[in-house]
Amino acid sequence: MALLEIKDLHVALNDGTEIVKGIDLTVRSGEVHAIMGPNASGKSTLAYALMGHPSYKISGGDVLLDGESLLPLGADERAQRGLFLAFQYPYAVPGVTVSSFLRSAMNALRKARADGTDDPIPIPEFRKDLAAAMEHLKVPRELLGRYLNDGFSGGEKKRIEILQMALLRPQIAVLDETDSGLDIDALKTVADGVSDLVGPEMGAIVITHYQRILNYIHPDFVHVFAGGRFVAEGDAELAKKLESEGYDAYLPEGIPGDG
Amino acid sequence: MAKPETDVSQIGRDYKYGFHTTDKPAFSTGRGLTREVVETISAQKGEPGWMLERRLQAYEHFLTRPVPTWGGDLSEIDFDAMFYYVKPIENQAESWEELPPDIKQTWDRLGIPEAEKKYLAGVGAQYESEVVYHKLKEELTRRGVVFLDMDSGLREHEEIVREHFGNIVPFRDNKFAALNTAVWSGGSFIYVPPGVKVEMPLQAYFRINAENMGQFERTLIVIDENAFVHYVEGCTAPIYSSDSLHAAVVEIIVKPGGRCRYTTIQNWSTNVYNLVTKRAVAQENATVEWVDGNLGSKLTMKYPAIWLTGEGAHGEVLSIAFAGPGQHQDTGAKAVHMAPNTTSLITAKSISRGGGRAGYRGLVSVANGARGAKSKVVCDALILDEESRSDTYPTIRVHESDADVGHEATVSKIGEEQLFYLMSRGLSESEASSMIVSGFVEPITKELPLEYAVEMNRLIQLQMEGSVG
Questions:
Q1: CB-based contact A78 B431, cutoff 8 Å
Q2: How far apart are CA B79 and CA B69, in angstroms?
Q3: ipTM of this complex > 0.90?
Q4: Chain B contact set for A52 (CB, 8 A)
Q5: Fewer CB atoms near the end CB (10 Å): N or C, chain A?
Q6: Which residues contact A117 (CB under 8 A, 6 or more apart)?
Q7: Could you report the per-residue pLDDT of B186-245, keeping only the tens digit for each?
Q8: Handedness of CA A121, A127, A132, A134 (dihedral sign)
């Protein structure tokens, strides 16, 4: 059982502009928390800050995973502790095949878990795990030999993000706008993939603008994020209400809404 | 981030503190270059008169030729302080124990087998794969393939050597070609008879001859009609040399329909000036491929050239240069189209870090009459920090209106976002950077024999460990 605690978290840009202005959130294994909010509300900033992006500064509060503060740790160490971020816009790494990247990432985590001793996954085991996860997520085999995200369509990138998640088996996964750029079939496959992983081993934070993905990943909690704060919280019903009524009712004065 | 114990880029520097060469009185011509030195070298080898004459002409030319100033800084080379001929054993470590510990450590980390390490150190005359080598040699001999060191090549196949030696790279070509012609020793001689295709790459280090890592190697490769060979020179492990100048000449002639691939990985210690002239002639429908990796040396100036002299000939150069602190890699390629419908492709990649400087200097020339020639040059530079530098000096001369000549160049840096993405998967900063760099050079490494590719990637990892954290 994993426990992620976000306590009065403030996040600022390097120039000091505060984007996240104090949020509290507790995520346990088996739970799905949806964070919904208008565009440009700072949702992605929150996701990046949780993962330790160097462009963002934690200006207050704390983030704890199983009681240990993540703030002093780099992105690599956070990943090694079991945090995962599915990127809204994954980056390309030309010359590095998907399969070699996946194996390196798995080995990096195994090494960390073996206290810094190399413990590479045996190739047959890697192939077996990979084949199973790919079939489940309907990732075409030919993607494995291609360079990571290089020339991939939006849908291919998102599937590869979820494939990484399935293989790296994080304790807490943050999905940043995973639904954007996906057609309905791809959305369903990806969302089912996420739902299958949520359980005793993993909790998830699903960041989204639209309610659409929540038809497939049932959220236990919905948090409305606007102006750097949670302005409303509820269950799945809240998401549906947002879909029909929009965010306007939750926007404080002077905070830009959608468009 | 923990500092690794070894930064390969530093190895060259530490030599001067920890390395001793033997003072045993074996044969040497002493410091400096004179006419007598050239005569002595030739006499020591028992060469035919024409070779001595060639050496002496080259020596005279060397004296009159100024040190080139258009490329890297050569002003510190002291020609008078140098040894021009030393019996090979002398510039090698006397015993395994004498080697600097960090070079041994690097070899350990590269996973190089013990016997091979001893060979690299020059202390293991009996390389374990000698058995393998003998089998290979028997097979080659049966098919008429000649694979010898150049001194033996001259003794045993004088007529072939005499026909081609200095025809492709005349000693008047440049000062260092003149120097090499005057004092050459060692190098490889390869002849492949018509129609013979040698499947297994021929590797210099299989030759069990210390001379192949000499200072002034001379290599001649003659590929007869429709024959093929892949020759691999050097290795990815750092090579210690007490010599500060390495001036080799490589000449290749590929007759109609033949193909030759020549792969070099040089990782000289960072005290070495590596000034090499490499040129190949591709006759009708012949193919020449240079795969050239430069990791070591203080300054490398090397521009593998292909003269496409026969209709339909094709040339390719794939080059990769890695310049770390204190290093200048001035590398490139030349494609000279002298016949119709000839094609060339040059792919040059460079990485500079820690104040290193890497550049591409190239020539594409389409002569009168080379109708329908096509050439493409792609240069990509990756600069890892603000102190480092990359230059591109392309020269294009076209004398045929229907020639199709293209040049593309890109310069990039490792992006913070790309690094963050990889680190968010659990890779450390150095693992992430070396993954990006390995990916960048992948178009080259995938062309290398597997063991070289693996070693090259490990070396990049070691270099990157030294560069961050």
A1: no
A2: 16
A3: yes
A4: 424
A5: C
A6: A111
A7: 888 999 999 999 988 887 654 333 333 458 889 999 999 999 999 988 755 566 565 688
A8: positive
